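Cross-check.
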Amino acid sequence: MHIVQLANFYGPRSGGLRTALHHLGAGYVARGHQVTLVVPGGQRTEEWLAPRLRRITLPALKLPGTGGYRAVDPWRVRALLEQLRPDAIEVSDRLTLRGLGTWAASKGVPSVVISHERLDRLLEQFLLPGSAARRWADLANRRMAASYDTVVCTTGFARAEFDRIGARNVLQVPLGVDLTAFSPTRRDVELRDHLAGTAEHLLVHCGRLSAEKHVERSVDTVAALHAAGHRVRLVVAGDGPRRAALERRARTLPVTFLGFVAQREAVARLLASADVALAPGPHETFGLAALEALASGTPVVVSHSSALVEIVQPGCGAAVPDDPAAFAGAVQGLLAAEEIERRFLSRARAEQFPWPTSVTGMLTALRESGLSAH
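Predicted model, tokenized:
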């Protein structure tokens, strides 16, 4: 079948969403399907990423305050869909493209939407108090669930807000990790020594530097460890609207900002060369960067308020309260464990999330959507 993947907030530096779309699309093609990925950009382009895997970029304006994200006009997307005549659509946007489920229903086209974020959490962080955020999120989620054949959530954490409203068309399909690209074999002793300098241990934070990621907690974790006499250095790989403020916060601390690291091979070497990774974002619905660290043999300290509590297990990391002291204590605990054991347990956990399993789950969702649509 011809599957059209649709996404906004996609760009050269859009991290986990971009990675997921590409791996799912390549997986669909490997199973014999044709895939067209439709995303926003500066101008219209069309390119073949692989046989039967095409990417069409539609012109879209930049969104202020997002660090360069763009959101394409839904009208342009619907006009393109009329030309593409898909057999199924997969939407990775629950805000600006939310009306595409209705379009698909009017055409008899099966539709799946992937919920990549918790709407109630985002509303609570940026706009509304908790109870009001939940009410507005419940209203929006009822409408979205009703307009699509299937809602896919990657974790129980992501699914919770749909379970709260009693949505019946929800499937849970975990994302995956590239177990070849991210591996303990990527460990680079020279790179580690260069980055760590005089520090005894190397920590890493990999991801977008935006408000909802709470990168300041990683910086404050280093401050707590440094104050307690631990010789650590934090390397931050990523860019975003919070970078300048974070650099000011870390001015007197052993923290290195690498900016956006474009080459996946370089990211893999960095993750495999670190001793511990930090993922403090409390709203993560999956946390692909953390899973890539585990695949690299590096344990992760995560927020117990996020979906990563479902992924990180004792031995390969720790899920702790949203507090720098708790993060610092967890780092110390992991560093006290035998290195060989913590790296083995981290890799073993990541091996439970291969991309082919995700592809199978998503194709099941698309097939079930087809039954609903017809």
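The first helix runs from residue 15 to 30. The CA atoms of residues 192 and 273 lie 5 Å apart. Passed to J.P. for a second look.
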